Amino acid sequence: MSIEPSTSADLKRWLTAHGGFFHPLVSFTEGKFGLSAIAQDTINTDTTIVSCPFSLVIDIERALHALTALLGESTLIDLQSWLERQLICTYICFHWIIPDSSPIPDVLRHITYLKSLPPPDTLLTPLQFTPSELEAFRGTNIYGATQDRQESWKAEWDQCRTFIHAINFEWADKYTWDKYLIASTYLSTRAFPSTLLSRAPTLLTNSSTYPIMFPGVDILNHSRGQPVSWCTSYPEASMEEKDDFATVSIISHTTTLPGEEVFNNYGLKANDELILGYGFSLPQNPDDKITLQLGGSPNKWVIGRHASGAEGLWNEVRQLVAEDPEEVGYEEDLEAAQVLLEMVQKKYDLLPQFPHEEDAAIRPAVRIMLEHYLEGQRDVLTSLKSYFEAKEAAAIEAARKEGVELVFEDE
After folding, report:
1. pTM
2. Residues 269-301: pLDDT tens digits?
3. Is it the case that residue 11 has pLDDT exceeding 60?
4. At CB < 8 A and 24+ separation, what contacts does 251-255 make?
5. Which of 258, 231, 229 is nearest to 37 (CA)?
């Protein structure tokens, strides 16, 4: 059996010492992008792989408690106005701000966990891309979303840093943008919904849901379609809404053979979400999609492979081009098809060309993500084009049945 990295061995000891659990047949190996959980012997189906007690969850309550202890109780009201991400990421950053030579305050409980996370130089969300790598995504939704996210996160960091500076300028000097970006990326790549802390846990989110971190539970890598359950368990006779002794566990519903990796399942996610939020992609991802919106319309249509979801967009455009929405015939269908084919072609033409293999400015892992993403986008748009061409052909046939022979001039 290979020797586990010290950071993962420390994480196991820390987690179990505080009421958590790791399956004894799971060990960790250091990969290119962090830790991988490997079965050392056969792990049977319906087996709990890892559990984390609520007492170790990183949420806004823990962050507020720690930050008010560090910055002073008088700061509570101001801190309560911060976003959830600001609170959690600043809590994480303070583990790196306190000098190594100083004792870590008791309220900063997660240094062992944070040391087990992937090194910052291995993080690969688009905010860690070089300018040349991000430029390769120009013309995609990822490009604009990355710029928006960086602007938003930098504004959050600047607000927090200004606040900390008024209390302790030495801490503020160490509270850098790089640290906040690393903390935000850890939160993005390892987040679970706060709804799992409820007595009626759910993966469905609402306006009050925010990302939280479950140390240990977040260590398993993603495999699409992997049969797993995220289960919440409370101590017998516990009546508290949030009990520190309650746990969240991952249960694997498949047999894992010796040497195989033990996976989690993050849910059905398209490559744009995987790249932006996690820093990886899947080849020929069945969940790839594209979002289209007509100018001036509040409707956003999410279209998947095989033109799934296209019917709503088609019907909206048919209604828009019709003088009388109650009477839509072949003329309206033909116009709608032409409008939508033009939209799809423009979207397709805006996609970037794949960079040359000799372009050393783009790292191989980023090149793979771009390749996976472009394949999905082009496939969705191609299927959408076929869908609207079929609608156009049906309109032409409908006209012929009414004795109208349509003539199209070459452009």
Report:
1. 0.90
2. 999 999 999 999 999 999 999 999 988 899 999
3. yes
4. 251/46, 251/47, 251/48, 251/49, 252/43, 252/45, 252/46, 252/47, 252/49, 252/226, 252/227, 252/228, 253/45, 253/46, 253/227, 253/228, 253/229, 254/45, 254/226, 254/227, 255/42, 255/43, 255/44, 255/45
5. 258
